[in-house]
Amino acid sequence: MNASKGLASRAVSVSPSITRVLANAAMDVDGLIPLWFGEPNQPTPQFICDEAARSLSAGETFYAEGLGRPYLREAIAGYMSDLYGKSIGKDRIAVTVSGGNALNLAFQALLEQGDKVVTLTPAFPNLLAIPSLQGANVVPHKLQIKDDQWHLDCDAFLETAKGAKVVLINSPSNPTGYMMPREDMQKIMSVLRERGTWLISDEVYARTVYDDKVAPSFLDVSEAEDRLIVINSFSKSWAMTGWRLGWLTLPPSITPIIEKIAEFSVACAPPFAQRAGVVALQDGEDFIRQTAQSYKAARDQVCSALLSHELVSCPVPDSAFYAFFKIDGVDDSIAFARTLIDKAKVGLAPGDAFLVGEPGWFRLCFAQTEQQLSDALTRLSPFLEDPEKAQ
Ligand SMILES: Cc1ncc(COP(=O)(O)O)c(C=O)c1O
Q1: How large is the average pLDDT for residues 278-306?
Q2: pLDDT (tens digit, 9 = 90+) per residue, 254-277?
Q3: What's the CA gap between 317 and 302, in Å, rounded?
Q4: Where would one find the signal peptide in this protein (predicted)?
Q5: Nearest C-alpha to atom 11 of ligand 1 is from which residue?
Q6: Is the model's pLDDT at 205 over the cut of 70?
């Protein structure tokens, strides 16, 4: 008997992560510079690690509350209230085991089989896969490029969003760095409020902005009981990708539902990681400021090198840590990325992974040292100059 015959069709049909497949195949390539994954190259700051070690030594190794330890929920509520200049109560906060887990819980709480979910593309692939795996009909709406910047026509988007149960917006965006202006948030929020549509706002890059303290947020333009769920994570801002810690900001009436369903998946976030989360929030501002400055310098280094090639176009981002660029003349991005692994020894994520809808696009994560980036750009240069070399 073939065991795989009896599997759920959603699980079988969901596309695997293209980037993961490429990266796995390149595991043994000696000297490869991997710029395909979305994570900072530096380890978690020592003061955060020390707090987790202290917690472990103190025996904090037991199950914790489903919504998170009260002291972390309190710390997150205080951090969010300060950041957005409005009172956000602890009753609105649920600690999760990563931003990814937060997205899963939010969709689990909202979706019925066949519900329409509308989201923006190019997108982080998990944003399409998570609702699809939960039985939703996911409808992508493509951002456009206007004056060399990613741009959303709000009216067209709201037209696509008609009949949706959930609208999912990721701003600042992975992979484009698109940051939705506050006025557009205001407009979208008020139309969705009128329609009774849910909005899930993925704001895991809220602090990865170069010229401000924080990106515009749907929390700026909403009330506590609006149908809005905001996703946050410790992964990017505090270089804690491996810790698996995030949180949801919810309408208070939804918090008990999240508590109930969290119990049936991961039960709780590790208590020592939660202790570390508190010090990250309280003492992490210098780290956030310094890394934002270094990402800005890396952005300048990478974008100016890419744009020096005639065939390359690249909207220059003000947030997140990705250059999402197009090489004219490349008609198969996945094959091209494979050749770059072999010939240039640089790992890039092909645009197909983000549903960009046309060939020639690539994502490069520049949360790396200047030297790594400089080496990678030197190696890429001949292929950017003449893509035929790789085909
Ligand atoms: C837009 C976006 N949302 C959510 C996540 C998930 O982050 P994590 O699960 O590490 O918290 C990522 C990670 O790359 C992301 O880019």
Answers
A1: 97
A2: 999 999 999 998 999 999 999 999
A3: 11
A4: none
A5: 99
A6: yes
Name every residue whose Cβ is closer than 8 Å to that of residue 46 and which is 6 or more positions away in sequence. none
Q: Ligand 1 in contact with 119 (CB < 6 A)?
A: no
- What distance in angstroms lies between residue 272's CA and the mean position of ligand 1's atoms? 21
Please work out whether the CB of residue 333 comes within 6 Å of at least one atom of ligand 1.
no
Q: Which fold has domain 3-44+286-385?
A: Aspartate Aminotransferase, domain 1 (3.90.1150)
Choosing from 35, 233, 238, 321 the residue with most ligand 1 atoms within 8 A of its CB, the one to mutate for a pocket test is: 233
Band the pLDDT of 386: cuts 50, 70, 90. Answer: confident
- What is the location of CATH 3.40.640.10 in the chain? 59-284
Strand locations in the chain, DSSP E? 33-34, 93-96, 116-121, 137-142, 144-146, 149-151, 166-170, 198-202, 228-233, 246-249, 312-313, 322-327, 346-347, 349-350, 361-365
pLDDT at 2: 76
pLDDT digits over 219-263, tens only?
999 999 999 999 999 999 999 999 999 999 999 999 999 999 999
CA 203 to centroid of ligand 1, rounded, Å? 9
Q: In the chain, which segments carry CATH 3.90.1150.10?
A: 3-44+286-385
Residues in the chain, how many? 391
**In the CATH scheme, what is the code of domain 59-284?**
3.40.640.10
